[in-house]
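Board notes, transcribed. Complex of a protein with nicotinamide-adenine-dinucleotide.
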Amino acid sequence: MTETVRPYWQNYIDGAWADGGDGTRITVTDPALDEPIAEVARGTAADIDRAVAAARRCFDSRALRDLRPHRRGDLMLEVSRHLGDLADEIALVECRDNGKTLAAGRAEVALTRRYLQYYAGLADKLEGRQIPLGADYLDYTLHEPYGVSAQIVPWNGPLPVGARSVACAIVTGNTVVLKSPEDSPLSLFLLAEACHRAGVPAGAVNIVCGYGYEAGAALVSHPDIDHIVFTGSVETGKSVLRAAAERVIPCVMELGGKSGAIVYPDADLERTAASATRGIFHHSGQICSAGSRLIVHRSVHDELVGRIKALAEQRSVGPGVEGCDMGPLINARQLDRVEALCRAGIEEGATLVMGGARVAQRRGHFMAPTIFTGVRPDMRIAQKEFFGPVLVVLPFDTPEEALSIANGTDYGLAAGVYTRDLRLAHWTAERLVAGQVYVNEWWAGGVETPFGGMKRSGYGREKGQEALLGYVQTKNVGIRF
Ligand code: NAD
C-alpha cells in the first residue's frame, strides 16, 4: 500500500467537486509525524449557502421522496459497494489524517458499510399506524422527512459517524449538508466519492469541509435547514442548540462522556482487564464512549490494576502505518490538554501508576497510556473528559457507593458492569444513568443497538432502528368519508 495521500481535495456540492468559494485551503496534518499531508478546499459561509441551496432544490424536486423506499435503500447499498472499492485508500487516510492504526482504519470501512447496509434494509420498514375512529373515518399516520438535514461531525470517527447519519437521512427522504471535521476530513470525501459513483442524486448529499466557527456556525444557523445532527463536545453542542432554538429546529445531540464501569468482586478479572484496557486505550482513548473511569471493589482493586497495567505495557505506541497499535492524539492542543489534566491529577493527590506524559521520543502527538489510582470522585481527573488514553480508577465498598460514583458526573453516555451475578448486573444497569450499559464487555452492542446520551451527553439516538425516528416527523391524516 502506498503511504501518500492525494495532495488536494475539493468539497462536494450539488453533485460536483468544488474549490472553496474564496479559493483558500485548509492544511491537513498527520498527527503521527506532525507534518502536512494534504490540503482541502476551505468551505466558507458562501459554500454552505450553495450546499444548502442544492440540498433544498433536491428535496423540493422530490427526487428522493418519490422513489419507492426500497429504491432509496438500493442507493445506500450501491454507496456501500463503492466504499468497499475505496477501502484501502480510506484505511490509509484514516491513519494519516486521524492517527488511527491500519487495522482500525480498515475496521472503520467495514463498520461504515454495515451502517449503510443496515439502513438500506430498513428503508422500506418504517411503517405508520392506522388509528380507528369509527365507520365514517379513515385515520393514518405518515413518517415524513424534515427536509434539509445539517450534520456536523467530529474528527475522531468521521466516516462511520457521518455515514450513519447520512444513511438515516437519505433512506427517510431527507437531503444532507454535512460539515466534515477540519482536522480529519479526508475519509468523508471518499464517502462523497462513493455517493457520486453510486448515482446518489445531485444535491442529496453535500459534504463541505471548513472550520467550526466559520462553516459549522454558518450551517447550523442557516435559515433554510430543517434538522440538525450534531456530534461533538458539550460546549460546541450548546452553541448549536442556541442557533437551533432561534428557528425551533429539531436536533439529535451526540455529545461527550466520562463513562464509568463498576467491577464487582466476583467479576472474571482476566476478561475484565482485557475489556477495560481496550475500552480506554482503543484509538488512544479518543472515543466519546471510552471507558475512562473504572470503579473497582476494594477487594479486587490491586489485582485488577496490575493486570490492566501489564496489558497496557504491551501496547506499542507509534504511527499506525508502522503497524503500531496505539496512535497519536489528533493535535498538539489536545496533547497539551491531556497532559495538563494529568498534572492536575497529581497535584490533587492521585497516584500515577503509569504514563502521565507525552512520549518524548516520538515526533508526533503521542500520549503514553496512563493509569491513575487513589482517585476521589470530586477530582478533576474523575470529572472531566480527557479524550485521551487515561484511565482513572476509583475504589468502592458497597454497590450503592459504586452507583453514586458512576452516576456522579455531568455526563451520561455509557456505563459498564462486570460481574458473574446477572441479578446484580440487571439491578445495577437499571440504576445507571447512561444511554447504554455494557455488561461484561465494553462496547457490547453494535450497528443494531441504539446509541446516545443522557444528561449533558445529549439526546436523540443514533444507530439501531430507533435512529430512523430522529429523521422523520409524524403527520396524521384524518379522513371523513
Ligand atoms: P468539537 O465540538 O470541537 O467539534 C465537533 C464538530 O463541531 C467539528 O466538526 C467542528 O468543526 C464543529 N464546530 C466547532 N465549533 C462549531 C460551531 N460554533 N458551530 C458549529 N459547528 C462547530 O468536538 P471534537 O473535539 O471534534 O470532538 C470531540 C468531542 O466529540 C468529545 O467531547 C467527544 O466525546 C464528542 N463525541 C461524541 C460522540 C457521540 O456519539 N456521543 C462521538 C464522537 C465524539
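The pocket of nicotinamide-adenine-dinucleotide is lined by residues 152-157, 161, 179, 181-182, 212-213, 216-217, 220, 231-233, 236, 239-240, 254-257, 288, 385, 387, 413, 453 (CB under 6 Å). The two ends are 67 Å apart (CA to CA).
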